[in-house]
Every structure is written in structure tokens, then in C-alpha cells.
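Re: adenosine-5'-diphosphate structure - here you go.
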Amino acid sequence: MSQSLKILFLSAEVAPFAKTGGLGDIGGSLPKALKAMGHDVRVVMPAYQNIESGYPGVEPMPVRLDVPTNFGDIPTGVFEGQLPDSDVPIYFIAEWHLFNRPQLYGYWDDPYRFAFFSRAALELAVALDWRPDVVHAHDWHTAPAITWLATAGQAHPFLNNIPTVFTIHNLAHQGKVSWDVFDYLGIQTHSLHEEAFGEVNFMARGIFHATLVNTVSPTYAREITTPDGGAGLDGLLRHRQHDLYGILNGLDDSWNPATDKRLVVNYDVEAMDGRLQNRRILQEKANLPQRDDIPLVAMITRLDWQKGLDITGHVIHQLMNGFAGEAQFVLLGTGEAHYEQMFAHLAAYHRGKMTAFLDYNAGFAPTIYAGSDMFLMPSLFEPCGLGQMIAMRYGSVPVVRATGGLADTVQDGLTGYVFTDYSAEAFGEALQRAIYFFNTDKEAWRAIQRRGMTADFSWGRSALGYQELYEWAVARGAG
Ligand code: ADP
């Protein structure tokens, strides 16, 4: 085995404590895989309201951090616990005013909240007298830690010269804020070409200052170096392209239809009868007729423009109107109001054929993966995407657009159906193809399901990729 490393792992989301999407899944699963490889990994996240109000197994720590800011030192508490079914320590930075709020994000002071969090997480390492070999930060929220380490932190007796890895989960959210945030953090530095006058861009800073940078699929790693996919940062990413890697996310073992406790009926690839029962449960919950003979199409997603919803409305309308024969459709999703209205409207129009659950329901999602025949992900862009991998594991065949991690995980005609153009026509055509096979060739369909269910999306290989990045970062040293 390679050398055991001390890894400080910073994330705004760590499932099951806090999750709005894939970032939370990765925060909850990658550290466990690293621990299993023998590394001393410690996770830090904010103490959101659910932690402050009492979370089983999470206890206050007898430590007080004095986090330096330009308002003076801010005293801060810390909770500690462990990632479920593991001995990976997780610490929660408890600054009541900043994090004890109903939502994770969406506040005017988000950049300050996460700048504070990032700085406090480093202070925690000092308090624990635990000097990490590498700091691994995720997305813009924790990029301030990387910026601080690369600038003001160089003068710190304990925290200087620590190499960093920065993982981009979604380039669309960059954390732009006024330059004052650097006064707040005690950082003096120059402006980046990507930053407007007087503005800090934390995503750009993470990319600029990290020892090594990666994103969550090889295809997305390439796409973000182009003007189309770079969200304004492609120049900077091209500048760092020799330090930029793509490592596919993995799924942890909790996503397994044979053991998933959230399913009423478990099943596996050898005994698929359970799928039929899940389908009936899903139809009952969705108030749809108990039909076994027609395809049941599903979608579980944040209702966000990146998810391809602008080309979805038309296709669902056609699907419900029978453009590929009879079909049922179920959506589970929440997000932007106009997309919620679109699905509510479609569901009212096509009553009895489709249902839109406009909420977030982690307990119900597995039944949809397990009870549906097809799973749609027509994303405009998709850094990695977990939905398609979960769907495959549960035997729901993905219909996806060839972008980012979707292109890296779904093989057209082998494990799913893939289209390229971002258009309702191309999407509709791929869905028609899927339904055609479903209706006419049960054997071929079963083979597609079987390949998807047995494909290896475990963390093993990806965690090795991260281990390699850490080793390179350590060999390179900070900077
Ligand atoms: P993203 O991170 O962009 O949201 P991913 O496909 O990487 O997309 O991850 C989505 C994760 O969030 C999956 O685990 C999916 O099941 C879950 N999810 C998304 N929306 C909902 C919802 N409304 N209810 C329950 N789970 C959801």
C-alpha cells in the first residue's frame, strides 16, 4: 500500500447530514473509500440547523475556535460525529448566526458564510494539532481555504506549505462577491483576469491557487476548457490544463437494490421480480393505473436549467400523447418555479398518465429508480451525474444526452440510449428508440438492464484516482 496520508476534506454538503445534490453524495462516500485505503481522512462541514437542533450521534466538542477575521476573532463551537457505518471523523463548524438557518444556501451573505467556514476549518486543524498532508476542497464554497493557504497562510507557522487539491463539481456556481471578503479573511493579493473590478470569484481562485485541480468526469474536464463549457473560466482552465484531471464519481454501497432499506421490496439482477412489485408500489403512490405492459418513464432531478428541462416539456407532452405508444411518466423534483409550473401543468393535462412530485424526497427516490423502466437525463451540461448510474444499478435504463459524465457512463444501445444535439427532436428520437426496444424485444431490453446493473460504478477505481492526485500534490509541494 502506498503511504498513509492525512487528508483534510472540506465540503458544504456531506450526505446524510446535508445534501442538495451530487456534491453531498460525494462528501459522504469518497472519504469512506479513502479511509478504507488506509488514509487518515477527516471531514469538515458547517453545522446547519439540523445539526444545531440535535442529530443522533453528533456531539459538541470540548473545543473553542477563535477564528481570525477583520472583525476580530470570532469564537466558534464545533460538533463531532462519524460518517455512518464508518470511523471517519466529521466535524461541524458551529457558528449559529451563519449556519443555523432553514436552507443550506440562497442567502445574500453566502460568500461570507463559506469564507468563514473555510477559514474556521483550517483553524480546527490547528486546534486538533493535526497538520494535514493535503487539503482537499470542493466547489466554490470551500475554495477560500485554498486561497487563504496559498496567500496569507504562507506566513502561518502551522499551516504554511500545505498542498491542495480542488475539485470542481459544478462550474456554473462560482461564488462571486465584493473584494471586501479578502479584508474579512485577512488576504492581500492581486486580482485575476477573470475577476471584474472589485470582485472576487472563489471558483476561479480555487482553480488558480490549488496545487492540482480535478473535476468529476474526463469528458467534463475537457468540456470546461472550451468557451462553450467554460462558464467564463475556460481561459484559466486552459492555463492549468496540465494540472487538470477528470475522475469519475463513484456510487457507495447504500445504492444497492438488494439491500436498500428504503425499498419495500429488494431484488437483484438474478431475481428481478422485485422490480415488478416496486413498479406497482410506485404506480399506486403516483396514482397511476397498475399497468405492467407499458413503459414507465421517470425523472428525478433538481429543477435547474442545466438539467435540460427546456427540451423536456415538449418531449413529455409528446410521450403522453402517445408518440411512442402508451406510456406513463413520473417526476420527482423541486427547484425553479417555472419548471415546477411546467410539470404541474403537464400533470394536470395528462392526468392518469403522469404524476409530478414537486418536492425533495430521498426516502421515495429509490422506489422510482426501482419501479421505472427508463430514466431521463437530457442535461445541457452534467459534470458527472449520479442519477444515471443509480438508475442503471436499479435496472432503469437511462436515456441521456452525451455530455460530461453522462457521455462517460452510458453506452448507446449497450447500457442506455444516448443523443447528442441539445434539441427536443434528438431527445424525443432517443426516447422513441428506447421505447421501441422495450416494446418489441424483451430479450434485448433485459440484456441492457443486466449490463447496467452489473457495471462497476463503485468508488474503488475513482478513490485510487484521488489517492494518486494527493500523492502528486504532496510530491509537488504547495503552490
Ligand atoms: P446534481 O448533483 O447536479 O443534482 P446528480 O445526478 O449528480 O445531480 O445527483 C443527484 C442526486 O440527488 C441523486 O442522488 C438523486 O437521486 C438526488 N435527487 C435529486 N433530486 C431529488 C429529489 N427531488 N428528491 C430526492 N432525491 C433527489
